[in-house]
Structure formats: structure tokens, C-alpha cells
Amino acid sequence: MAMPSRAIRIIKVPSDIGSVYSGKSRAPTAFRRAGLHEKLGAAGWQIAESTALPNGPVGWSPSGRDPNGARNEAATVAACEQVRQAIGNDLTVDNDEKGQACRFQLILGGECLYCPAIMSAYWHHLEGTGKRIGIVYMDADCDLYTPMESNSSGNIAGMTLTHLTLREGALESMQKFSRADGSAVVDNTNIVLFGLNIDSVANKREHLGYLFDNSFRVSTSRVVEAAPREQAQAALKWLEDSVDFVILHLDVDVIDPGVFPLGNVPSWTGLRFEAAMSAVKTFLSSEKTVALSIAEVNPDHDPGLSMTSRLIDQVVDGMNSRMPSRA
């Protein structure tokens, strides 16, 4: 899945379906208004754009719990299916052989809950090649809730790692977002949880215990803040030793809202914007990184789009560090 060209596919996922508040569905439009496309183009990137949700944004609506404890389950699963199809279709465009791709995927506006669908698309694309895909899950939350668990909101976004790992309690309807053989897209060998807010009450002791007991690789927001580049380099080396390709998932709630309140729901991580972006650019510098998913951006928190513009500048800098030669 090498990148021989300067091509980027921007895949828009305008969605609020798994949210506590509305607003994230407007993120792809905000990225365009804040100059993402122009800045990438000016740097020499060749941009193609598509939407994973051709019928328009999947909006937020108040909802009660379904009988199994989840909210908006059927609509969420349907949206995940569309995202998996969009990612998979793009992976097959202009490919010379199975397991190869010619362009970087930049997935905008997606919610965390789409990670299993994205990973599933890559695993299916790589089937039969012997190659492996991994993920840097850069997020304040470990998202290990199950639908019937105490304190669970019922929002499927809070169950993302549960569905990535297909651990006990995962929704049956989400188990289709798996590898070709039906196994989970993530285990303790192909994910790094990076920037986890160990002090957040949203990360229950039982969830942290699950990560510890099952030997998952975790870098907390505290250690990332202390040495962002070094922590990212160490995490990247560990992951690169296990997988052939890497997806970087950036949930902007990993950044402390006291300095950068762009995330949909605040989490007081103590991680500065500059430190988070240093880590992002380190992950993007790897030749094995084939996609960046940016999630949980709520433009309603950014009326002048100044924060969105700052985020774009850092992402473009990171992308430019991997720009192939024009020769």
C-alpha cells in the first residue's frame, strides 16, 4: 500500500448520529471553508474528494434506548456500512495489484464510531496478501462501554474500542465490521491508545483494567504532554514492528479544552495543542501511515474557524513532510 503519487482522497463523513450534541456533521464544510483544500493544493497535493454519505449528513436527534441499550442503532449501523463501502471503493481505484493503493486517505468529520468500519475496509482490502493494518487511536477516551453497562450513555461512539476488539458485550449488529474471517479488526498487537486521559471519570476503572489485563499499549495524556515527539516515536516504532500499514485516528478531544475547545465534548487532558500536533506530525511522517481520520470536530465551538484553521495548518505541515519528490 505504498504511496507513489502526491494524491489525497478526502472522504467526507458529515455525521452527528452517535453524538451527545449536534454540530459535528458540519465539520467537513468547515474544513473546506477554513482553507484545507487550497492549502493542500498549494503544497502540490492532488486532491480528489467524495462523500461516504451520499444522501447527506446523518444528523443528531434525541433518542431513547433501544431494547439492547444502544441509541439509534439501526441508523448508526447503516451509516457505518456506507463508510466501509466508501473506504473500500477508494482502495480499489487505480490499484495495480491487491494490497496496493496509490493515494492517502484523509477522512474528515467522522465520529469515533466509524473506526471499526474503516479498519474493516482495510482488512478486507488486504485479504490474502499477508499484510496487516494497525491504528493509532489518539483519543482522550478508551471507549470501552457496552450497551447495558452502568453509566453507559447508550451512544455507540462510547463503545468504539468494544467494537474494534469485539469484546464481550459488543453489539451483534456491529460485529459485521470485522476481518474477512469474522475476527476483530483490533487486538493488543495492532493498536496504540495515545493520549488517554487517565483522570477522566469516563474511563472507568474496569475499562482501564481491561487494557492492563490484556496488555494493550497505552500512552496517557500526561506522558504525551511531557515528551510528545519521543512518546510518538516510541509508539510508532512499536506499531511498525507489528503491522505493515497504519491508520492515524485523531479525536480532537485529546487536546485540552482549556487551550483548544474544538472537540464536541470536553475532556480535561492537560495536553496542549502544540504537543498534540507534534505527535500527529510524527505519526504522519511514517511511510507506513496510509490514512488520517479526524473526528469529533464541532465547528459550533469555532464561529470564526480560527481553531479549525490552526488544525489545518498543522495537518498540512505533517502531510508536506511526507511529500514525494516531484522528479
UniProtKB/TrEMBL annotation:
Superkingdom of source: Eukaryota
UniProt keyword annotations, A-Z: Hydrolase, Manganese, Metal-binding
GO annotations of cellular component type: cytoplasm
Span of the signal peptide: none
Hydrolase in keyword set: yes
Coiled-coil regions listed in the entry: none
A Pfam family reported for this protein in Swiss-Prot or TrEMBL: Arginase
KW Hydrolase (keyword) present: yes
InterPro entries in the cross-refs: Ureohydrolase (IPR006035), Ureohydrolase_dom_sf (IPR023696)
GO molecular function: arginase activity; manganese ion binding
Family of this protein: Belongs to the arginase family.
Name of the molecule in the record: Arginase
Origin species: Cladophialophora immunda
